[in-house]
Structure formats: structure tokens, C-alpha cells
Amino acid sequence: MTTASYSLTTEHAHLLRAALCPPDEALAHWQAWRKIRNLHAASPAPESVKRAFTLLDGSAQQLLPMICRKLEQSDDALMGYLQQAYETTLHENQRRLRVMSTALQALRQANVASLLLGSLPLSLTHYGDMGMRAMDKLSLLIPTEKTDVALAALRQQQLLPSTVGLRHRRQLASLLLTGPDGVGIRLHWHTLPQHTYAGADDPFWADASQLELPTGLPALTLSPTHLLFQTLVVGYQGGRRTALPAMPDSMQLIRTGQIVWDELLDLTERFTFRIPVRRGLMALQTHADLVLPPAVQHRLRQMVPTVAEQRYFDLLSSIPKNPLSQRFQRLRCSRLALRLFHQNRSRESLRTVVWHHLNPRLAWPEGEWSR
Predict the structure, then answer these.
(1) Are residues 152 and 293 located together in one domain of the fold?
(2) Is the dihedral of CA 107, 113, 119, 120 positive or negative?
(3) Tally of domains in the chain
(4) What is the band of 370 on the pLDDT scale with cuts at 50, 70, 90?
(5) pLDDT tens for residues 127-159?
(6) Whole-model pTM above 0.85?
(7) What is the pLDDT of the chain when averaged over all its residues?
């Protein structure tokens, strides 16, 4: 994946258009996808339909509930399967929302401030329909100094981290806490795993937006501008599996008309995320017909990444399959990250980074490659 472009397969392009376009255009793209999968008959065989849906990768399957809502007035032969995808997403989201509500209530009782990140505020606020966007990764940000208090409060709700992760948490930016029903919440004390120094999260706390959960519980979440920034960074700093779902998420946020573009680009340069933000916005121009203001386009052209930035994000985009090669590549990423993100900002030493990434018992935290 280059800095300048992000390509979609023909299949993914049709599914994305079916999720984003007005109903008539959406139906045409959906029918084009059906033809690719040899499902263009008036009544395709159920076995063929199930096989085609099963073969879709996870990122494409996330688009199916959105397509369902776009085509709900049509008489398409596969509407029953789309409706099933929508209802499954709705049911799973309701289950995850109950877990998140329990966690938020526990943190409130422990006097720990929290800020919702990621897919939950997207689903509730910007899609406005709990069945359209899967809350696939529940994430919370807390103040760094409250980490121990928060972990103790959540432990009482049976939300538990791994033993190894807990032991080495001071070298991480987040921990995945898993409840007895298998639903996990990633607890962040830094929003961005590359920026784990004092003050890095101040902009996100300062501009937080109010949100009320369907349970009536008040909460804080990222502002639309900051949520778009997070969506672009998460979606486009790694591989393609995160980039496809980021496209409808980004367009939902942009269509609110609440994006402060200068602020988003200021954050991009402040945190050295020129490459993923440019990748994301250019992909949206190509595949989702995004029209950026001329001033934004001009400023994006002025954002020339350094050689170190290009090398770092290229490494994140291509993870080797061999475990030993993965560990070596993580070490290379960490050395570059120290130069790019921690120079004169952190007491983290290269020796600590080397130990962290060569320690065979400490798994690389999910999200530092692609989140």
C-alpha cells in the first residue's frame, strides 16, 4: 500500500458502493456483486448463497447490515440473508452495550473519568441505528493516573486482563479486559499507542462530546473531528482489513458537517500521522466520491512524509507470517517509533523497547499494528 493510493478489489468496491450510495445506485452495485459471485439468478440456490456469504472476509461482512438498510424497500432475492446479518449485528451490539454500560457505571462509582472510543459511539451517534454498524471493538480511554483504580473497579465486574499483560502494562498503551461472557473491552490510558507520554491525550479530553447511551447512562466520547482522526489513523496505518470498514465510518462522520478540517490536519502533523490520514482521505476521494475543500487538498499536498515515516508505515502495512520475522519487524518498528514519536518526549529507552519486543511471553498488543 503506497502513500498515495489504496486499491479495492472489484468485489469490495461494489459492496462499498452498495453501502454508501442512494438506494437505486446501491441496488445496481449489489446486483453487480451478485453477478461476480454467480448469484444473479432470480432465485439462487441457498447453498450457493450461504457459501458466498461465508467466503466474504470480515471487513466485507461488516458492510452487509448497511446494505440491508439501503435495500430494505427492494424485492431483492437475497434480502432475507441481509436481514439476518442486520439482526445478528443488532443482537450482538445490544449484548456488548450491556457490558459497556456495566463498565461505565463501575468507573463512575470509582470516580474515574472515561471517554468512549471507536465503534460504539459511531454506531450509536453517527449511524443512529444499532444494527447497521457492528460494535466490534469496545474501547475506553481513562486518565493515565487512574489506571490502577480503573482496573480494580472493572475487576469487580469480572472484566479481567491477561496475567502477562497486567504485569507489563506500564510498557503498553492499553489492555484488553475480557468478561465471563467473552465480550472484551480495551482499556486505554493513551489513545494512540505510538504516543504514550504526558499530555498526549489532552486534546481529546478537552473537546469531548456528550453522549447518552440507550440505557440512559451519560458518557463522553470523542468529538466528530477527533473520531474521524482516530478512524483514519486506525484504518489506514495498517493493512487492508481495517481500511474497508473505515470508509463508511469516515463518510458518516464527514456527512455530519461537523468536521473542523484545520484541526484534523493540525493533529495529523502534531502526531506524525501524515501517511495514514492522506491514505484515508485519498481513498475516500477515489472510492466514495469525497469532495474535499480546496484548502484541505492544498494542505494535504504540502504534507510530505519523511523517509522514516514512510518506512515505519510500510512496515505496519505488511506483517510477515513467520513468528521470528514478526518479532524482528516489531523491533524495527519500535526503533523507528522512538525516532518519530518519542523524541524528547518520553523516558522510554531503546533497551526497554528491545526487551519488550523480544520477550517471548509478552504478546504484541492488538492494535499497535493496525489500531
Answers:
(1) yes
(2) positive
(3) 3
(4) very low
(5) 989 999 999 889 999 999 999 999 999 999 999
(6) yes
(7) 88
Asked whether residue 298 falls in the same domain as residue 313, the answer is no
User: What is the maximum span of the chain, computed from C-alpha positions, in angstroms?
Assistant: 64
Sign for the pseudo-dihedral over CA of 19, 25, 30, 32: negative
45 belongs to a structural domain: yes
**Residue length, the chain?**
371
AA identity, residue 106: A
How distant, in Å, are the alpha carbons of 7, 206, 254, 289 from that of 10? 9, 42, 24, 16
C-alpha cell read off for 242: 481495517
56, HSE (Cβ side, Cα atoms, 13 Å):
22
Full domain range(s) for residue 337: 307-358
Is 365 domain-assigned?
A: no
Model confidence band, residue 316 (pLDDT cutoffs 50, 70, 90): confident
Cα–Cα distance, 105 to 321 (Å, whole number): 41
Q: Is the dihedral of CA 237, 113, 90, 156 positive or negative?
A: positive
| Cβ density class 341-352: b for 16+ within 10 Å, e for less | bbeeeeebeeee
Are residue 78 and residue 120 in the same domain, yes or no? no
Bridge partners of residue 209, in order along the sequence: 221
pLDDT tier, 340 (very low <50, low <70, confident <90, very high otherwise)? confident
Question: Using one digit for the tens of pLDDT, what is the confidence trace for 244-302?
Answer: 889 999 999 999 999 999 999 999 999 999 999 999 999 999 999 999 999 999 999 99
Handedness of CA 344, 172, 223, 198 (dihedral sign): negative
Q: Which CATH number belongs to the domain containing residue 294 in this structure?
A: 3.30.460.40
